[in-house]
Amino acid sequence: MIQLGEHLPDSTLYAYSNGDGACPIGPDAFSVRERCKHKSVVIFGLPGAFTPTCSERHVPGYVAQAQALFAAGIEEILCVSVNDAFVMNAWGNSLQVGDAVQMIGDGNGEFSAALGLIQDLSARGMGRRSLRYALWVVDGVVKHIAVEAPGKFEVSDAASTLAAIR
């Protein structure tokens, strides 16, 4: 598992936005390491789009705390899940995240695996998924990490992340 003081892995993630209703060919690939260069970023990962705790508590908490996180110096909030970028975009639209949280696809789970934060939920029909976690990253270096125990939602929420940053 990634540790405090380590650099993010050089993984490719995917974002998609249908913007003003246009139908761009997407999704847009980007290097997570490059995107976090020279920035203070919160990355939170979760098992899956449209799942109960993720939809009812995890993402909405970050949307609600976004302005406080930005005021604390965070420049971007990334929600990462082992779903494709199209699903992440649709999920973000359904939750009305707006510009508060960027919904990012890790469709193959490569970033989650490179972090050492992958779990096998095959017994529940979900395959390999991300663990629930929150990272605070400054210039690509992990400054805070909070990983939930299986089935828990106690340390990776937005309020706990904000407290760690302050």
TrEMBL record:
Which protein, by its recorded name, is this?
Glutathione-dependent peroxiredoxin
Q: What does the record give as the function of this protein?
A: Thiol-specific peroxidase that catalyzes the reduction of hydrogen peroxide and organic hydroperoxides to water and alcohols, respectively. Plays a role in cell protection against oxidative stress by detoxifying peroxides.
Presence of the UniProt keyword Oxidoreductase in the record: yes
Enzyme class label: oxidoreductase
Transmembrane regions listed in the UniProt entry: none
- Tell me which domain of life the UniProt entry assigns to the organism this sequence originates from: Bacteria
Q: Which UniProt keywords apply?
A: Antioxidant, Oxidoreductase, Peroxidase, Redox-active center
PROSITE patterns, from UniProt?
THIOREDOXIN_2
- Record organism: Pseudomonas promysalinigenes
SUPFAM superfamilies referenced in this protein's UniProt entry, alphabetically: Thioredoxin-like
Family stated for the protein in its record: Belongs to the peroxiredoxin family. Prx5 subfamily.
The record's catalysed reaction(s) read: a hydroperoxide + 2 glutathione = an alcohol + glutathione disulfide + H2O
Signal peptide, first to last residue: none
User: Which residue intervals define the domain Thioredoxin in the entry?
Assistant: 2-166
So what EC number does this one have? 1.11.1.27
Q: Which Pfam families match?
A: Redoxin
Q: Does the entry feature the keyword Oxidoreductase, yes or no?
A: yes
